[in-house]
Amino acid sequence: MSDWTELVVHKYGGTSLTSTQHVQRAAAQLDRAQRGGRPVVAVVSARGKTTDELLAEAAAIGTRPSDAGPGWDREIDQLLACGENSSAALLALALRSRGVPTVSLSGPQAGITTSGRHGAGTINAIDPSRIGGLLRDGNVAVVSGFQAANRAGDVVTLGRGGSDTTAVAIAAEFGGQCDIFTDVDGVHTADPRHIPDAGILAAVDSRVMAEMAFAGARVLHSRAAALAAAKKLRLRIRNSGTDAIGTTIVERSDHMPENASFVTAVVHDLDTAAMTIRCPASNDSLTTDVFAVLARENISTDLVHVADSDPGDVVMRFSLKRSELPIARAALQELFYGKDSIVHVVDRVAKVSLVGAGLLNRPDSTALMLTTLSANAIRSSWVYTGQTRTSVLVPEDRALDAVALLHSAFELGRPEPELVVPV
Ligand SMILES: Nc1ncnc2c1ncn2[C@@H]1O[C@H](COP(=O)(O)OP(=O)(O)O)[C@@H](O)[C@H]1O
Ligand SMILES: N[C@@H](CC(=O)OP(=O)(O)O)C(=O)O
Q1: Is-annotated flag, keyword ATP-binding (predicted)?
Q2: In whole angstroms, what is the distance from residue 86 CA to residue 20 CA?
């Protein structure tokens, strides 16, 4: 058994592989890492907007029937996997043209397995033998992200943004380190594409990062952040196009001063919908059944509220990803068939969150959040508060205004907010 602690996984997102020059730049970076004497694995996403384009092509071919079943989703996964596989082969060709020994592998060829449904697989296990063998022979192993094999040997994708999770899972399997290369200099106090004075965070606590990712900061897939936190993985977020040192995700064990700034970032998620279900209280298993069905479909809910209401009804409310509405609707339709229930969906909403530490001990943060929004005529609802996140729903068309206002109200536009943890 080799000691793989020196192993480094480089993950290149779609934005870092857009053009031929981008692919060659990634190959040069991998070449340098390999020459440094470390075993190197590259994990790649589909180039540029390829995944969106493939989905658009599928939509142009035909509409998913409401009773489509897994057969439809299987074909979508077959299609989407081509995006990552093409990146992997091109990167391997770029490496070979530099004289770097390399082999590209699809997720199934790399020994990555799942039991999840098509479109939402979660990694069960990684058989390290194929990747390990290639590394021992001096190759850079280039692995298609975002995909795994199910029991039947079919490819299953891991949910949008899932290549980060592939990269983190491989690094965790080998006990190595993971660098996520993207198109920004690291994790910022808000999305730097929309908030120009967002500051870069030199280091972020792993639990705070997991919360930011779940709240919608696309820079890291939420399951990747959670896995990295659980495995205490050495993880950095870096820019593939600059020499910026990026953001290090750290395990926080040090003392946190009471007066430290408590909000790290403002995060928004446009992929949000709000669902309200009203059902007669006599259907007493319905509330628990709803969450069981959503869990079976691997659909995460947030901002959950269940309450009795007049006349003898139970009202359930929760937010979920807008992109998962079709699956949620189909699954719930089955459950509600013949029962006297009303489902109401609002899909023009966005979730805006403060992410930080000790937020429950700072009730002034929720107060400042809500007053800032209302003073600017932004209607907020469905408030959730927790120790590391406070979230509200706002109208979708005011989401970016809300982020800018909160970013300024919480004075996050400084170069280095105080919550940054020393490394
Ligand atoms: N707090 C944040 N810090 C950094 N980037 C963020 C943040 N919130 C959202 N983002 C967005 O995440 C994007 C990177 O994710 P993504 O577009 O999925 O890249 P990739 O193709 O590399 O996976 C950035 O371009 C940025 O707009
Ligand atoms: N290509 C997939 C998977 C992925 O992780 O992409 P990216 O790393 O570019 O966010 C997607 O677009 O969702």
Answers
A1: yes
A2: 12
Q: Give CA–CA dist 172/140, Å, rounded.
A: 18
* Contacts (Cβ under 8 Å, ≥6 apart) of 277: 290, 315, 316, 317, 332, 341, 342, 343, 344
Whole-number Å distance between alpha carbons of 249 and 229: 9
Helix (H) or strand (E) holding 227: helix 222-231
Q: What is the ipTM of this complex?
A: 0.97
Ligand 1 centroid distance, CA of 114 (Å): 26
Q: Is the CB of 217 under 6 A from ligand 1?
A: yes
Domains and CATH numbers, the chain: 8-183 (3.40.1160.10), 263-409 (3.30.2130.10)
Mutate which of 23, 43, 45 for ligand 2? The one with the most ligand atoms within 8 Å of its CB, which is: 45
Burial class (CB in 10 A: 0-12, 13-18, 19+), 151: exposed
Distance from Cα 191 to the centre of ligand 1, integer Å = 7
Kindly state if the Cβ of 183 falls inside 6 Å of ligand 1.
yes
Half-sphere exposure of 183 (CA within 13 A, CB side): 13
* Structure confidence by residue, pLDDT tens digits, 308-333: 877 778 888 999 999 989 888 888 88
Alpha carbon distance 112, 130 (integer Å): 10
Ligand (nearest to CA of 417): 1
Distance of CA 147 to the CA centre of its chain: 14
Do 225 and 213 meet the contact criterion of CB atoms below 8 Å apart?
yes
Tell me the per-residue pLDDT of 163-179, one tens digit each, with 9 for 90 and over.
999 999 999 999 999 99
Instruction: State the closest ligand 2 atom to the C-alpha of 83, by its place in the atom list counted from 1.
Output: 1
